[in-house]
Amino acid sequence: MSSTTSPLTHAVRPDGPLARVRTWWTILRICLEERLVYRGDFMLGTLMRFLPVITQILLWSAIFDANAEASAASGVASDKPVMIAGYLYGDFIAYYLMTMITRAFSSMPGLASLIARSIRDGTIKKYLIQPVDMTGFLLLSRVAHKLVYYLVATIPFAVIFYLCRGYFLSGWPDPLTFLAFLASLAMSFLLGFFLDATIGMIGFWFLEISSLMFIYMLMSFFLSGQMFPLDMLDKFHLVGSVTWGDVVRATPVQYLAYFPAAVFLGKIQDTRLAWGLAMQLGWLLFFVWLCRSAFRRGVRRYSAFGG
Amino acid sequence: MSIIEIAGLTKSYRVYQKQEGLLASMRGLFHRQYKQVHAVRGIDLKVEKGEFVAFLGPNGAGKTTTLKLLSGVITPTAGEARVLGHVPWLRENAYRRRFALVMGQKNQLWWDLPAQESFRLHQEIYRIEPRAFDQTRDELVDLLSVRPLLGQPVRELSLGERMKMELIAALLHSPEVLFLDEPTIGLDVIAQHNIQNFLRHYQQFRQITILLTSHYMKDIAALCQRVVIIAAGRIMYDGSLSGIIDRFSSHKIVTLQWAEGHLPGDLTRYGELLDATPPKARIQIRRDLVPEVLAAILANHPVDDISVEDPPLEQVIAALFSIAGEEAAQLEAAGQASASVPA
């Protein structure tokens, strides 16, 4: 077999961990450069992302106002501030701001459709011909994507958090909780990536996945806790002591918004926190495996069906 | 050992047969008709180191499918292939670092970034030593005269310039085998010529093995010593370009010129009269009859000048393709009844 090796191959560097890291760094650097080409579009997109949060804040402030008026009208004089499902007005604002941070890590706009499109139009061939792993490549490109996003979004985020600092009633979390929050945030980025990438891999079996994407986005919007804090569902019992909140918290999407936010706000502590982090890691490993095996099977199918 | 060894390579796949109309589309939701497409029907081929081989054939003949099989993008239905000792569809990195595929219609460079960034990326993913990288890149960039364009985003380059960059990207890791799928498609004459010159020079200099598909006869005539004609998924011819005429052309074309400036009236008895514009006439004559017929013409007419030529290569190949097309249609029709199965 080696009799055909020409002297030209001596220009090849050995393949080791260091070579891999260098490759990753180059991919990251080039993806960063590419993202910066579209800085105008990016800035606009970043700023527009703040709009839904402002809408949510206005909505809840209207609900709280209405509640306060109702209790005043009923003549029940109370010094106690209005609470809805155990949340004060300030808690809601703090919660939405925190989910905004979490989504800045876990959301993967366009990833699944990009994968499905590259299967459909054949650009995926590049990853079969070149010695580069597609999932790893896309992951690095997302890291670059996010880094540029944080670069643009840090100042508006800082301004909003400064203006809303009074709503964080329980103050800054203790170092251990904060560390747990960071770990959960990092995992939410990876989980978001592998979840979306897995859905994109379905493109190997079905040419069009946009309806599926729509359903997933809708579901995850509700079930991840972007719409409302998931513990609000604890009031609704399903069977016995099992609540709808328990059911929703059994899905992986809660780790894309609710869980890290709740950790930061001190709502999940001690053994529940440790268990939650372990579950998040478990889901992450599961989706890494699912994504990889879907890719392997998908490529096998793709190369059997003509490419 | 040959660089490329193919034995009995076969690829067939089924495609969904959609009938025309909305009603048929609705039926297709529940019951689908599939058709078996035989893209490659048992190809045997050996290519030695340093050969420049052209795949020639009509659209849908199986040329691109063969290149996809050899580059590991698709797996065969049956048969074997080894390139540089590797089975391509196992897609080992050791193999992927030793070949390259360039498709004229597909873009592999980063669209919004200058080509030099894509080159850097290739340096890393192909693990090219920095010194070797600089040397190879400079050599390629100078050969193709694209140095001033290195810093321009790829989307701003012309088609010809982009193709040059694609070639550089593909050759940076000094592949030992190069697959080129219609590399000059859509290019103007000058750009085609530049690419041809470069490929000829590079192949001779580096002694790499190249398989090329192209519809431009000029590409093939300029570059390839060996031509493999594929039609209907089979190899119909394997040899030199000029050999095609010897093998497949049954006639010669004789051009005659008369001194008096007017033509005799009974030329059709010598062969098929292709053109008669006094003082010249062109007659197509069966090869085996040429000496006899020429003797008869010279004996009967005061001919001033005479030339005997082969018919144009394009014409021979076009005729060959149309025969192959008919054969393919017959094969498909024969296989249809048994191959068409419901889902």
Verbal overview:
The complex is a heterodimer of chains A (307) and B (343). Chain A is mainly α and 307 residues long. Chain A is built from 12 helices and 4 strands; from the N terminus they run H-H-H-E-E-H-H-H-H-H-H-E-E-H-H-H. In chain A, the strands form 2 sheets. Chain A has a two-stranded antiparallel ribbon. In chain A, strand 3 (237-239) and strand 4 form a beta hairpin. Chain B is an alpha/beta fold. Helix content of chain B is 38%, strand content 28%. In chain B, strand 11 (272-277) and strand 12 form a beta hairpin. The model of chain B is unreliable at 337-343 (pLDDT under 50). The chains are: A mainly alpha (307), B alpha/beta (343). The interface between A and B is large, with 38 and 51 residues.
Concise account of the structure shown:
The complex is a heterodimer of chains A (307) and B (343). By secondary structure, chain A is mainly α.
Q: How much helicity do the residues of chain A have?
A: 55-70%
Number of helices of chain A: 12
Shape category of chain A: globular
Q: What is the strand content of chain A?
A: under 5%
Q: Features of this protein?
A:
heterodimer, A: 307 residues, mainly alpha, two-stranded antiparallel sheet, 12 helices, disordered N terminus, B: 343 residues, alpha/beta, 6-stranded mixed beta sheet, 4-stranded antiparallel beta sheet, 11 helices
Detail the topology: elements first, then pairings:
The complex is a heterodimer of chains A (307) and B (343).
Chain A: H1 17-37, H2 39-48, H3 50-73, E1 83-84, E2 87-88, H4 89-106, H5 111-121, H6 125-129, H7 134-163, H8 175-201, H9 210-223, E3 237-239, E4 242-243, H10 244-249, H11 258-264, H12 270-304
Antiparallel strand pairs in A: 1-2, 3-4
Helix pairs in contact in A: 1-7, 2-7, 3-4, 4-11, 5-8, 8-11, 8-12
Chain B: E1 4-17, H1 22-30, E2 33-47, E3 52-56, H2 63-70, E4 78-83, H3 93-96, E5 99-103, H4 115-125, H5 130-143, H6 159-171, E6 177-181, H7 189-206, E7 209-213, H8 217-223, E8 226-231, E9 234-239, H9 241-248, E10 251-258, E11 272-277, E12 280-286, H10 290-300, E13 303-309, H11 313-339
Parallel strand pairs in B: 3-7, 3-8, 5-6, 6-7
Antiparallel strand pairs in B: 1-2, 1-4, 8-9, 10-12, 10-13, 11-12
Helix pairs in contact in B: 4-6, 9-11
